[in-house]
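Please annotate this fold before class:
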Amino acid sequence: MKQGFIKVAAVTPKIKAADPHYNAKEIGKGIEEALRRGAKIIVFPELCLTGYTCGDLFLQELLLTQALEALAEVAAATEDSDALVFVGLPLVKGHKLYNVAAALQDGEVLAFIPKRCIPSYAEFYETRHFEQGNLQPEPFFYEGKEIPFGADILFQVDGMSGLLVGCEICEDIWSPEPPATAHALAGATVIVNLSASNETVGKDAYREMLVKSASARQISAYVYASAGEGESTQDLVFGGHNIIAENGVVLAQAKRFETGVIYADIDIHRLMHERRRMSTYRGEQENLRPHGLILVRMEEEETFLERRFSDRPFVPDQPEEREKRCNEILSIQSYGLKKRLEHTGASSAVLGISGGLDSTLALLVTVRAFDLLGRERNKITSVTMPCFGTTDRTYDNACKLARLLGTTLREVDIREAVNVHFRDIGQSSDCHDVTYENGQARERTQVLMDIANQTGGLVIGTGDMSELALGWATYNGDHMSMYGVNAGVPKTLVRHLVRYYADTCDDEALKAILLDILDTPVSPELLPPVDGAISQKTEDLVGPYELHDFFLYYMLRCGFAPAKVYRVACMAFAGVYDNDVILKWLKVFYRRFFSQQFKRSCLPDGPKVGSVALSPRGDLRMPSDASAAVWLAQLEEL
């Protein structure tokens, strides 16, 4: 389970009803296939050794004894393997019959987990045959050994922090108080469910919703294996609808009516991070019912990952979902600004426009806020402030955009003011150092603040979350505003928001300007142009924003260590960036993220729009002088 990843499998074998030895062979084939793929937790359907649809044949002693013999065959199929395997069968204990899951490893039966919720409604009549299982483990003698028997049994993987497995059976997940809730509160991070859920119209969607919501509510992984082909079709049809989910997200799902195996790579460390992060996820230990713990061994090895990691974690893959997300974010931004304008009594808004992506998005949001307020757009003052690095392309785009949106365009050429300032402090205009660059940025901020005073307005910040993460902002320059509408939006998403606005607007001239802005290189334009073109490209200096946004998401949202971020980044950007390039910019990211916290500690107000945010009053309570040594040391080991 290196870096928290473990491969799990849900298997639906093709069985024969009431033929345990045949079924044991098919289950053995499924185990063999799953082991070849590296699965460490393998789950089979409910009662799969006999078939779920045996009906009153469950009352036949011969079938029950044959099921126990078949269990020994399946156990033998797990020899010399450290995989934890769950298989369903009917089992007699005392004078009662139970629907159980047998937990197997390395040729041994570790435990029997009985079903708690026995359905007796609609097409189900399990109470005719089966007894409700006990909670607390009791001894059960199988092949001369004492085996724990009870619903409250967890499997602790020895030496692997956080990997704790709980089990429930079919109807348990449909009940108001599923056993998995108590398992998760007791520490279980993986829940397996052996099921025999028949198909009716629309039931698949409801089943998927149950599994997703269970994994989300419990902050766990959920492995659901259901009965399929081979069950009796006398009255019911079973589709083998297997599902593997993690914290509300389906990682893998079987096509119904096809037998086979599905796999997924579960991230245990991410689940543990999420539980630590959510203060409401607390098992009050004194109120929890005790669980029996069984220690199992698994070799510490690197899981071959088949899991996909999106190279744009902030941007939905599907176009429809992306459009919905863009509209939602624009609404959050604009309604946040609307409230701030109402509360302060500001009659106008002032923002600097550069012809770049960030100021474009901020202007679009401001226009939308004014429309919501029913105010005239000419109360928005769009200020262009050309200086040493301004190019004709960005200047023209900024002016055209301001006019097309109906705002008041105001131009303040700051060259003379900056030169006077340089003379005052003894800065040579030929020395293109950080003072040369930041002097321009701070002059622009001063202009905006003073125009806001003139017009009774608020200065709207344009900087985005990616710039804040890297500290790519001039302290008390573009770093400062009266309300930062883009503070919660990463650079990769800024681009999609502007694209969405372009695609949905009716004005062809406005659309053309927005598309050209999208095609313009990201630049602060603080150094003189070369042959009229932008000479200072941000991503050449600090690295590609698509990489930095990826690093930011998996560091803050998922709690990944640098080595794990590097591993998944190499997978996500394979064929786009070489591994050494990814490592180079990852080191830059960590160095800048830690060293620039002081800029985030005095961040202006701005709306949170997603699950990652950098506000010191919201999601990120980080000391400005925290050391990055531990993180950088791990990167150096790579």
